[in-house]
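Quick illustration, no need to memorize.
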Amino acid sequence: MTTLKIHNIETAPEGSKTFLENSQKSFGMIPGLHGVLAGAPKILEAYQTLHQLFTETSFNADELTVVWQTINVEHACHYCVPAHTGIAKMMKVDDTITDALRNETPLENQKLEALRTMTLTIVKNRGHVSQEDLDTFYAAGYGEAQVLEIILGLSQKVISNYTNHIANTPVDAPFEKFAWSKDEVNS
């Protein structure tokens, strides 16, 4: 098992302290992921910046959740799936959406299912998609901007998912009740 240090404001490098203080103010705690990322100030800054930018895209709360959780589940992130389950609840995303994403089952809403499918295609194929994939996505009501916005969300999730894999970041207490494992889904 690998681990990386989880910093707090006192132990973090100087360049990370302000970002951790902002996390503390925003969340009432320092999420474990942020504490790990603090070990390299620029990655913490990049993660928080990408998160902010992704939340400012054309996607609504349901769509943000679809992109985040599709990537989290595909990457089997033990930390981000529970965290984004809790975040989805805070964003008032219907539990049926979150449950389907966590269980890797199709979404009832066809437009959201098209978003899930395109996100999964981009992730699995490392950005290699066919014109047919794009046409199907566009026919569901999305456009080129949303293809690019998925890539923005993926950029954020690569930072968090990969970091959590290497660090074995413990799930934060508020999200422990949403614990998840890909092994449980596939059994």
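The domain at 14-185 is CATH 1.20.1290.10 (AhpD-like).
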